């Protein structure tokens, strides 16, 4: 049983109890992904599995045979920051930084969910493609807690990236 | 976590064989792994049902059949669900977080266990977790607990959202077990605690949920209103699922289900009968709440739910009847 992590194939752990989070951090040394609560309640452990965000603390590693997993280490590096990372820096989207890898992985998947037209709990017309408003972004990032309370700056970072990269446009009026 | 073996079922039959041999199913794992970490659940054998092919959404007559392994995210993103059963999409999206919904499944969501704090604390008395030890919540911290369908043994709520929508939509749970297939109306899936709170639902040993069937869409106004302590990523204190149609200024048809109010997703036909044929008004909504809450009983900290349910019902009915003039 193998999983591809950040482009490299790795055998899955032998211990069935190993969570995806502990496997990434303890066995593969990918410590960018953080453990906040270990119970699905904070989002610090968010990684992408086949492009979708999940809480790695609540998933058993052995359930990921054949999956493509991406962690913060694949999204950008200190010398080659991804646009979202640059925007987080520009907008002070963090203080201590502990929740940040999870926030950025989450925001990365949020972009593709929006592009696929997924609705959220605050989408006005659930059958229609969502209009990007601040409320939409807040709701869609609600699975990532930030104990430093950098929320408004995180949303500002997202708005900048969405405005710059499209295809989606922020509805300024609806955001006001 | 206690040690366990983990097998991977290749199809439903494979899963049934493992369940028959005493294995516990794991789907998304978002509830089970959590409970295993705390040793509230300690199965020695798990079978993953993720790759059993039960992850499709398909038309079923005029209705829809949602496979047990369809993730909550995929179900809420489905164009047919969003157009014809928006209540279901709304309820799912009101629950958990995007990350959890990407992993959580239709079958697992139905089977999720209570969030009672005593159930989660293995040092406390809890008849659901450890039958016969008593109920810590009865005279303790019970703010999130039920006011309907309780017993002296347990007052915990079924905490989920999706099932509340399914109940209002007259959906059915499809299962396969040692004795063949069963179709269980959602209203008969969850169990009130009675004197055996350890069993949350009517699944039989060795039985697998294969999917959920939605009947033809009602075409009515569908609303899911969830009241909670924070705006997102929190369980409901009270929720209301409504599917309602107006005709000539009167309520022609309505289905109402309530979450986190009772020990199970709650539906009371007498409430609906009190509303059908009537002209919407605050007095009428109040009368409906009287019917809903006639046997409600608070346990101290959760007394507020009785008032909250009345207000949530009134707000939902006002929204559904005022913004529903199309057929009026
Ligand atoms: C922090 C947090 C917040 C949450 N908030 C909400 C919320 O607001 N609203 C809400 O509704 N939910 C909420 N949830 C719960 C979440 O929706 C459930 O954990 C999820 O739906 C369970 O699905 P799963 O596939 O992960 O189940 P699993 O954890 O894999 O399984 C749960 C149970 O179901 C059984 N099971 C699974 N599939 C089948 C099947 N096909 N046949 C028979 N038995 C089966 C398993 O054996 C197990 O006992 C929250 C969870 C967390 C961790
Ligand atoms: S309410 Fe139910 S789940 Fe909570 S302590 Fe009492 S018996 Fe246990
Ligand atoms: S560590 Fe996984 S959600 Fe908190
Ligand atoms: S930056 Fe400190 S928790 Fe978010």
Short structural description:
Chain A has 176 residues and is of the alpha+beta class.
The second-level CATH architecture of the largest domain in chain A is Orthogonal Bundle
String of helices and strands of chain B: EHEHEEEHHHHHHHEEEEEEHHH
Number of helices of chain A: 7
Instruction: Give start-end ranges of low-pLDDT stretches of chain B.
Output: 324-328
Specify which chain pair forms the largest interface.
A-B, 39 and 37 residues
CATH fold call of the largest domain in chain A: DNA polymerase, domain 1
CATH class of the largest domain in chain A: Mainly Alpha
Domain FAD-binding PCMH-type (chain B): 1-219
Keywords (chain B): FAD, Flavoprotein
InterPro entries (chain B): CO_DH_flav_C (IPR005107), CO_DH_flav_C_dom_sf (IPR036683), Diverse_Substr_Oxidored (IPR051312), FAD-bd_PCMH (IPR016166), FAD-bd_PCMH-like_sf (IPR036318), FAD-bd_PCMH_sub1 (IPR016167), FAD-bd_PCMH_sub2 (IPR016169), Mopterin_DH_FAD-bd (IPR002346)
Protein name (chain B): Xanthine dehydrogenase family protein subunit M
List strands and helices in order, with pairings.
The complex is a heterodimer of chains A (176) and B (328).
Chain A: E1 2-5, E2 8-11, H1 20-27, E3 46-49, E4 52-55, E5 68-70, H2 72-75, H3 83-90, H4 100-115, H5 134-140, H6 151-165, H7 172-175
Parallel strand pairs in A: 1-5
Antiparallel strand pairs in A: 1-2, 3-4, 3-5
Chain B: E1 5-8, H1 12-20, E2 24-26, H2 32-37, E3 45-48, E4 57-60, E5 63-67, H3 72-77, H4 79-84, H5 86-93, H6 98-103, H7 106-111, H8 117-120, H9 162-168, E6 172-177, E7 180-185, E8 208-214, E9 221-227, E10 238-247, E11 250-259, H10 269-275, H11 282-292, H12 304-322
Parallel strand pairs in B: 1-3, 2-3
Antiparallel strand pairs in B: 4-5, 5-8, 6-7, 6-8, 9-10, 10-11
Helix pairs in contact in B: 5-9, 10-11, 11-12
The structure holds flavin-adenine dinucleotide, iron/sulfur cluster and FE2/S2 (inorganic) cluster (2 copies).
């Amino acid at each position: 049983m193998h999983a591809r992590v950040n482009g490299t194939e790795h055998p899955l752990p032998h211990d069935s109890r190993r969570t995806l989070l502990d496997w990434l951090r303890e066995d593969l040394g990918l410590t960018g992904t953080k453990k906040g609560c270990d119970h699905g309640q904070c989002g610090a452990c968010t990684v992408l599995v086949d492009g979708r965000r999940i809480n790695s603390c609540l998933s058993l590693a052995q359930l990921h045979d054949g999956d493509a997993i991406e962690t913060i280490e694949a999204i950008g590096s200190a010398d080659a920051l991804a646009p979202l990372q640059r925007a987080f820096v520009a907008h002070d989207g963090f203080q201590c930084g502990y929740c940040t890898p999870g926030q950025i992985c989450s925001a990365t998947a949020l972009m593709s969910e929006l592009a696929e037209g997924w609705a959220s709990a605050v989408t006005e017309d659930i059958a229609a493609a969502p209009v990007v408003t601040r409320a939409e972004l807040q709701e869609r990032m609600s699975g990532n807690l930030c104990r430093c309370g950098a929320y408004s700056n995180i949303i500002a970072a997202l708005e900048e990236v969405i405005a710059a990269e499209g295809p989606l446009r922020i509805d300024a009026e609806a955001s006001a | 976590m206690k040690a366990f073996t983990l097998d991977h079922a290749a199809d439903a039959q494979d899963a049934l064989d493992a369940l028959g041999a005493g294995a516990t199913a794991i789907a998304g794992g978002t509830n089970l792994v959590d409970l295993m970490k705390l040793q509230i659940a300690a199965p020695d054998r798990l079978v993953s049902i993720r790759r059993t092919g039960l992850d499709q959404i398909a038309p079923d007559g005029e209705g829809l059949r949602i496979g047990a392994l369809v993730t909550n995210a995929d179900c809420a993103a489905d164009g047919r669900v969003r157009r014809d059963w928006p209540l279901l999409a709304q309820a799912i999206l009101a629950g958990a977080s995007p990350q959890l919904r990407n992993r959580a499944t239709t079958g697992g969501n139905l089977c999720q266990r209570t969030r009672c704090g005593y159930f989660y604390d293995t040092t406390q008395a809890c008849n659901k977790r450890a039958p016969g030890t008593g109920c810590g919540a009865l005279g303790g911290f019970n703010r999130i607990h039920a006011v309907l369908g309780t017993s002296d043994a347990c007052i915990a709520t079924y905490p989920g959202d999706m099932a509340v929508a399914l109940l209002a939509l007259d959906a059915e749970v499809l299962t396969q077990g040692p004795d063949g297939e069963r179709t269980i109306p959602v209203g008969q899936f969850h169990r009130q605690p009675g004197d055996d709170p350890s069993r949350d639902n009517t699944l039989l040993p060795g039985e697998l949920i294969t999917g959920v069937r939605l009947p033809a869409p009602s075409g009515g106004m569908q609303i899911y209103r969830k009241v909670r302590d924070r705006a997102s990523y929190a369980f409901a204190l009270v929720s209301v699922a409504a599917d309602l149609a107006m005709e000539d200024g009167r309520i022609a048809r309505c289905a109402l289900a309530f979450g986190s109010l009772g020990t199970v997703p709650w539906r009371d036909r007498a409430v609906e009968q009190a509303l059908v044929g009537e002209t919407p008004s605050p007095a009428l909504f109040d009368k409906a709440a009287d019917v809903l809450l006639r046997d409600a009983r608070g346990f101290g900290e959760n007394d507020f739910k009785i008032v909250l349910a009345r207000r949530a019902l009134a707000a939902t009915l006002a929204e559904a009847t005022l913004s529903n003039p199309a057929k009026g």
